[in-house]
Amino acid sequence: MRMLAKAAAVLLAAGTGLIAAPVSAQKSADTLRAMWRDPVVDVDPYYNSQRTGLIVAHHAWDGLVFRDPNGFVMKPLLAESWKWIDDTTIEFALRHGVKFHNGDPFSAADVAYTVKIITDPASGISVPSNFTWIAGLDVVNENTVRLKLKQAFPAALEYVSFVMPIYSQAYREKVGRDGYNKEPVGAGPYRITNWVAGADISLERFEGYYDGGGKGRPPIRRVTIKQVTDPTTEMNSLLGGQVDWIWQYPADLVDKIAAMPNLAAMREEAFRIAFLHLDAAGRSNPKGPMTDARVRRAIFHAIDRQTFAKQLVQGGARVPDAPCYFTQFGCDQSAAVKYDYNPAKAKALLAEAGYPDGFDIEL
Fold this sequence. Notes:
Shape: globular
Number of strands: 13
Structural class: alpha+beta
Order of helices and strands: HEEHEEEEHEEHHEEEHEHEHHH
Helix content: 25-40%
Radius of gyration: 24 Å
Strand order of the largest sheet: 2-11-10-9
Distance between the termini: 42 Å
């Protein structure tokens, strides 16, 4: 359970991630039975854009580095170390002795193969914008590669750690794109033993997983994931003991679930920001009220964001001043202008801008 919750923590962050699980969670069976409502229809990590797909990817595949959600520190994975050669070059010293789940040895060729695919417009990956900053990859030797950037991009390691799992070149070229999706092979702490698109996914701890990586060896042997579309089925399965772990259920059920003796419910922040964008440039209406800074300030003073977080989201969320998450790379909350909830000030600003009685606007 720690491994799945840990991966969820990597992915989520500023609404609420609501997680429930039995306290004992099938300990005797060494199995975690999870259920969620966002079915993965293509398990190849580069061919889905779902958070659930990314969670599976972090379990079954490894990238070069790992951003640990506990402290958000970069740790080694398939690369034992790395260094910036200059503003547009990162050199990675690759780990020796790593095996993919099918026994293929890992080497620089696999990294080069992966980078070639994700930077090729013809490959049809789901989110090519994740890799538009990459110029290419140079293989220095079997255990050293240099990732080339198109220009200085300080967040490069964030992307490498989060959305750049490494393929086995030999296996994927042998079975092809379709064969790889049917029987995927990675180098992560779990191997996928069975999966049915949109239905079930089964993972088992990879006993050949290497030591010394940032993820560590999984404490649970097996993870099964049932994928459903009905929240009632999900909740009934948890309450009936058919599953051990669910997430993203209605916030008003947290206290009820937590009150049950065999269940634990947690509110966790999600890596997501809800924000209002105002048309300051007047693209929709060149002379519209949003082009007036006093109107924009009035709107921000008129929204009670703290009450939104407390009453609507019901915990597990904070109010940011800047439109970025607190631990997000490059996010500086102190650089933002702070707007307190002040209806009187909002009304005064509207009146000053020539709208004492307000105005109608299309949202």
